[in-house]
Each structure stands twice: as C-alpha cells, then as structure tokens.
C-alpha cells in the first residue's frame, strides 16, 4: 500500500491530463453508443490495454449544481445506480479528497462488485468546472470486492452561452476493472454505464 501523495502536484498533473484529453480531435474517436441523453465515443487508452471513453450531452441545469451531484459528496449515492457505498477517507481542502466507493455487479454479475479508492479534485475550467480523479493504491481491500483502478478521468461542465440554464457535460473515463473478464463484456458495460449516467443524472436534477 502506498502512502498518500502530495495533493498539489497530483491535482495539477491530473488537470493537465484531462485538458489534453479534452483537446483530442474528433477524428480520433469512434462512436460506441448513442442515446437521446448522450453520445459515447471511445479510443485506445494510452494508460492501459483498454479504452478511453468520452461521453457528452446537454444537461438542463446550472454548472455548479450538476458538478455537486457528480463529485464526492452527499448527492452522488442518492442517484447513481451503479454506486453502492462511498466514504471520504481524507480531505485535503474543500475541493480535494480521497474517497473509497463500491459499485454494484453488472451484466448479470459477469462483472462482480468492485471497490475503488480515488483521489478527487474539482477546479474551475473556462466558464465552468472540471471535476476529475485517479485511483490510488491505498487502504485495505474489503472482502467480497475486486479492487478496480481508474486511470485519469473527469467531467467538464460548461454553461451554454446562448442558454445559461443548460450546461454541456463532457466526461472522460478509463477504468481498469481487473479480474478475469472478457474485454467485450467490459466494453459493453462501459458504454451502457456512461449513457445511463446521463439519464440518471437528469432525473436526479429534476427532483
């Protein structure tokens, strides 16, 4: 188990990585799934032998409220159907923490429940916000869970200029689920999970 990293350089590196992903040209992405709420693309990850996913959709609400529902905090467990528990293990400052969370089994439990320990950082970006994270090798793995690993991932939330009550939400996710899993099952689960994330989030914001 590694000691906790110094948060400032990790936060800065994480932000720079996400900004770089955000500048990847459209031609490098391939559509993986399209629903009325979001489009999901993917490209081979530079971090591991899997995919970097990009999801994007317009969400009807102001940026701060949307990001409050996504980042670690009291809202996330209420609406995210995949997440089954979440604990803040360490808080460095208001916008920076280490959290441990667990996810439900997927695809008729072909993918068993997972546990993650992530460093999370929220910061301003252009006229909106970026909330991002990366997994850490920290804390004991709980029994009955496989420890997964999130390579740099995050959500850009930017208000629409001509419609300030709406925001463009763009996510980048690359999750190494670990364990003996067929890659096709992982790819199916990731695309569906990201599309469902938008529909669940929209329902939560209307409540």
TrEMBL record:
It comes from the Eukaryota. One of its GO terms (molecular function) is cholesterol binding. One of its GO terms (cellular component) is cytosol. Residues 10-207 form the START domain. One of its GO terms (biological process) is cholesterol import. SMART domains: START (SM00234). InterPro entries: StarD4, START-like_dom_sf, START_lipid-bd_dom. It holds the Pfam family START. The lineage of its organism: Eukaryota, Metazoa, Chordata, Craniata, Vertebrata. It comes from Alaudala cheleensis. This is STAR4 protein.
